[in-house]
Specification:
This protein is α+β, with helices and mostly antiparallel strands. 43% of the residues lie in helices and 26% in strands. The chain is built from 31 helices and 33 strands. Strand 12 (374-378) and strand 13 (385-388) form a beta hairpin. Helix 26 packs antiparallel against helix 27. The longest helix is centred in the C-terminal third of the chain and has 49 residues, at 724-772. The radius of gyration is 44 Å and the shape is extended.
Length: 969
């Protein structure tokens, strides 16, 4: 019987049953039976595989859990549950080391505990009887410890009775580490004696290894999160660091092909350190691709950097520049997807020092690692300067100090005797304690620093004291400003004419109130601050108040303002205005509400009296915001008009009431009377009319009319809405729909042509590639095939470039890089590149230049791209004759380029359409001459980005001239 290393548990049970049946005397004789030893061996092996299978499942589930879990306590809980539920152990618990009490305290458990953890004797960290159990030994050893049989292990005696009572027979304890420090242990209990043999221990070590890795990852992510928050705190500070950092910094963008594979990279930024150290100009280098850059990278390094940009995993290496005579330590990371950045650290001096000194890695890290903090190292005996980081050197240079190795403490702390003595005191404390942290204010610069000093050791030998000084001046300033703001708020709070109270947004407890609030409530401040907000209103208002607070907490409302009659504790009633607003923290959250109360009793009584007086004369007609008219249905006279009607038509109420509806409605009198008759009979109550306003403007209105009788007079109650804008919008919507349909049609035609243009060179490339594989073709023929492949490849590259350009332009991602260049040199480059293209078609390439060269401040690459595109178009659509390119100064501030040909020409109706996206003169032209129809669209948008314009003049059958004008500066 052959068994695999891992086995499904159900399959293993089934195999055990088969073995039993196989050896059953009642089974058919022709099976043959296994011997007793063979049977025992197979059963033992199967049980072993079952155990391994369970532990493999534990490893798998733990691996999946740590990917999702980012909290330490949640991770411990999940691990214990997986060990018990998947590994089928009796119980598992995790204890953490309590340094203060020197015991291991349980933090989480799973399984059949039955009060075991609370009843068992505490596990000590010390080498005492209470520390001789599996857990204590595992933690002290930093590894694991197995107790194979609780009955026989004398060290387990303090816990034996409680463990055996619950069915535990053996256990294993595995030390849990975080950042190479033992912080606790995972202890697992089995009901089997001798369960944890060498193989099971190895698998459980894999489990604890996964847990340790997850703890390190959580700690690292927490550090990274804090570092990220610090970096994002100020964009201005980042830029200042970028420009003033001592390390070289270069930022690249990875270029991907249509399949998403990286094929090149482009420089998009570098700092002044690179400019000064290498001797280049940023403006000349930004935008260049790999082959154009001032340095080369090997293919292996390049591929690794592409992986950095894709995966985000950092990479570092060292590289020697023989040309510069420098040695760089280069660190690569990805600031965002698709980009990688390089830190160039000049380690030439470090390389020289490495040959002379073999100090510990701690010293090397202190020297090499770049840090935004001030870092330096002093000799532990005489406190002379041993080493420092670039930030420290910049800090000292800015103060006129030229530091060097061996300088005494007075040389780099020139604040006078008191300052030097202060630093000597710091170092003496650090040498005694091993490390020391203090806030220090510089007497020279008045800056605040958080200073940490640590002894540097190699074995027992102390060879230096490292100092890290973080500038916390800005933090201290923010804290001071916060204290000022708090004082201002307290002053306003105490002296405000309104009653103010700070209320806990969740419990409703009154945190603080001012004297005015206490006066309104007829209670002392001490009494109020011992109460909850819900105790102030009457019982029937409590639920309403609670709903309002919930609405504020959940963000449904931004504030609450109410006026209510408030019954005070002495029985008196006052009208108060209550306004509640949340006090938001910097992150948008809020834990307190500010409640403002104002006694408005006098104001309310006045308003109520006024309202009572006005209510007699106010009616719905006058208050309505809608345009309302009362019209005599028989004569058309306007009987009444509300203020909204006067405002809308532009006539006063007196004027409107002296007018007839025919003075407003543009229909003839008979039609108006007929429509009013229908409204009066209630046969029709909705109309659309044209109404004339006082300013002669005509507007479309919809009218709802209902018949009423007032004092025996038959009137129409008319509600009027202006629908002019709505009708215009509906009309515009129809036009927009038509344009959209036309755009969709053009887009479909474009895509069909693009599909043809891409497939044509692809088919040629594939076809000629297949021919190259045929060995019967001669070398000359194969060369022709390769030229064809090359030509079609370039065609395909041009199509893809056009698509990429139009995509970048449409999405606003393209950037213009302006610099000075000579126009004549640019024209010469374009002519040189296009000369072969013209001669291959038998065309004459003419050049027209203005006397005297012109210096242009623009994007040379984009101007060349447009001119090359125009010359390519001219060559494509010219069968015989010439193509001419030239330029002239249109005015002192503008240069005009032109490209003229003797080609087929463009009909006048297409002079503007050729620049539109998805538009072409004729599909037959595209099929005959090729092209994707994007060239002129790209050219037009690029020229507009440069602040210029492009237009054409053409006569069919005679030729075409394209003109491009752009500003000189």
């Amino acid at each position: 019987m052959i068994l695999r290393n891992t086995i499904d548990e159900k399959l293993a049970v089934e195999l055990l049953k088969q073995i039993e049946e196989h050896n059953d005397p009642r089974s058919p004789a022709d099976h043959g039976t296994l011997s007793t030893d063979e049977n025992a061996s197979v059963v033992s092996y199967l049980i072993k595989l079952l155990k391994s299978n369970r532990l493999y499942s534990v490893i798998s589930r733990v691996s999946k859990a740590i990917v999702k879990i980012k909290d330490e306590q949640e991770l411990f809980d999940a691990v214990c549950k997986i060990v018990v539920n998947t590994g089928r152990f009796e119980m598992a618990w995790i204890g953490r080391v309590d340094d203060a009490s020197r015991v291991i305290k349980p933090v989480v458990f799973a399984g059949n505990g039955n009060g075991y953890l609370s009843s068992m004797k505490p596990v000590s960290l010390d080498d005492t009887p209470d520390g001789q159990g599996p857990t204590g030994k595992a933690i002290r050893s930093g590894s694991y410890y197995v107790c194979s049989d609780f009955y026989l292990d004398p060290d387990f005696e303090p816990w034996r009775a409680e463990a055996i009572k619950r069915g535990y027979r053996s256990s294993i304890a595995l030390a849990i580490k975080k950042e190479d420090m033992v912080i606790g242990a995972l202890t697992i209990y089995s009901s089997d004696i001798d369960f944890f043999d060498e193989d099971e221990v190895a698998l459980l070590l894999d489990v604890i290894g996964e847990v340790n890795f997850a703890l390190d990852t959580i700690a690292l992510e927490d550090k990274n999160r804090k570092a990220t928050e610090l970096i994002k705190s100020s964009e201005q500070q980042y830029r200042m660091v970028f420009e003033n950092m001592t390390n070289g910094y270069l930022l690249f963008e990875v270029l991907f092909d249509c399949n998403g594979n990286p094929f090149d990279h482009r420089l998009i930024d570098l700092n002044s350190v690179v400019e000064n150290r290498i001797g280049i100009k940023r403006a000349n280098e930004v935008g260049k691709r790999s082959k154009e850059l001032f340095f080369e990278l090997s293919d292996e390094i390049t591929q690794r950097l592409y992986q950095v940009a894709i995966t985000g995993n950092p990479y570092q290496w060292e590289q020697n520049s023989e040309l510069l005579g420098l040695y760089f330590g280069i660190r690569a990371f990805s600031p965002c997807q698709g980009q990688f950045a390089l830190f160039l650290d000049d380690i030439t001096e470090r390389k020289f020092i490495e040959k002379e000194l073999q100090q510990s890695k701690a010293l090397l890290r202190s020297v090499v690692d770049s840090s935004p903090d001030l870092v330096w190292i002093v000799d532990p005996d005489d406190l002379s300067l041993v080493d420092w980081n670039p930030t420290f050197e910049s800090y000292t240079l800015a103060r006129g100090l030229h530091i060097k190795k061996g300088d005494a403490i007075e040389a780099f702390f020139p604040g006078g005797p008191s300052s030097v003595e202060q630093w000597r005191e710091y170092y003496e404390i650090a040498k005694k304690a091993g490390s020391f942290t203090i806030e220090h204010r510089s007497l020279v610069t008045n800056q605040s620093f958080l200073v940490t000093l640590n002894l540097l050791k190699q074995g027992d030998n102390v060879f230096g004291v490292s100092t890290f000084a973080k500038d916390i001046s800005e933090i201290k300033a923010v804290e001071a400003e916060a204290a000022k703001n708090k004082q201002r708020f307290q002053t306003m709070f105490e002296n405000a004419p309104l009653g103010l109270a700070l209320v806990d947004s969740y419990t409703g407890k009154l945190i603080d109130v001012n004297d005015k609030f206490a006066e309104i409530n007829l209670r002392s401040r001490e009494t109020l601050t011992s109460m909850h907000w819900y105790q102030l209103p009457s019982a029937e208002d409590v639920s309403m108040v609670m709903e309002g607070m919930i609405s504020l907490n959940t963000g449904k409302v931004d504030s609450i303002t109410k006026e209510k009659l408030y019954q005070r504790k002495d029985g008196s009633s006052i009208w108060i205005k209550i306004s509640i607003v949340p006090i938001k923290e910097s992150d948008g959250a809020h834990s307190m509400h500010l409640c403002m109360t104002e006694d408005i009793t006098e104001k309310k009584l006045s308003e109520m009296a006024l309202l009572e007086s006005e209510e007699r004369y106010r009616n719905l007609f006058q208050r309505s915001k809608a345009v309302l008219l009362l019209i005599d249905s028989e004569t058309g006279e306007i009987v009444e008009a509300n203020p909204a009607a006067c405002c809308y038509y532009g006539w006063s109420k007196y004027q409107l009431m002296s007018m007839n509806i025919s003075d407003i409605n543009l229909l003839d009198d008979d039609t108006i009377l007929s429509e009013m008759s229908l409204a009066h009979k209630e046969d029709k109550n909705y109309f659309i009319f044209k109404h004339r306003l006082a300013n002669k403007e005509v507007r479309f209105v919809e009218v709802y009319s209902s018949p009423i009788v007032v004092a025996g007079r038959k009137l129409l109650y008319s509600i009027i809405h202006d629908i002019t804008d709505r009708l215009k919008a509906e009309k515009d919507l129809v036009v927009a729909k038509s344009k959209a349909e036309e755009s969709d049609r053009l887009k479909t035609a474009f895509l069909a042509n693009m599909s043809h243009e891409i497939r044509t060179p692809l088919n040629s490339i594939i076809g000629f590639s297949d021919l190259l594989l045929d060995p019967f073709f001669s070398t000359e023929q194969q060369t022709e095939f390769l030229n064809a492949i090359k030509q079609n490849g370039r065609s395909l590259q041009a199509i893809v470039s056009d698509i990429m350009d139009i995509s970048q332009i449409e999405s606003g991602l393209i950037s213009i890089q302006k610099r000075s260049f000579l126009v004549e040199s640019l024209i010469d480059i374009v002519v040189c590149e296009q000369l072969i293209n013209c001669h291959s078609k038998g065309l004459e390439l003419r050049v027209s230049k203005q006397a005297g060269d012109i210096e242009l401040e623009s994007d040379e690459y984009r101007v060349k791209q447009v001119l090359t595109n125009l010359v390519n178009n001219a060559v494509k659509f010219t069968e015989s004759g010439y193509v001419e390119i030239g330029y002239k100064l249109k005015d002192p501030n503008t240069i005009q380029f032109f490209v003229r040909d003797s080609g087929i020409g463009i009909p006048k109706e297409y002079h503007q359409k050729v620049f539109e996206r998805f538009s072409q003169v004729d599909q037959s032209f595209t099929r005959k001459y090729g092209g994707n129809g994007l060239g002129l669209t790209i050219s037009k948008q690029l020229i507009e980005l440069l602040g210029g314009e492009i237009y054409l003049e053409s006569v069919v059958g005679v030729g075409t001239t394209f003109f491009v004008t752009i500003p000189i500066g």
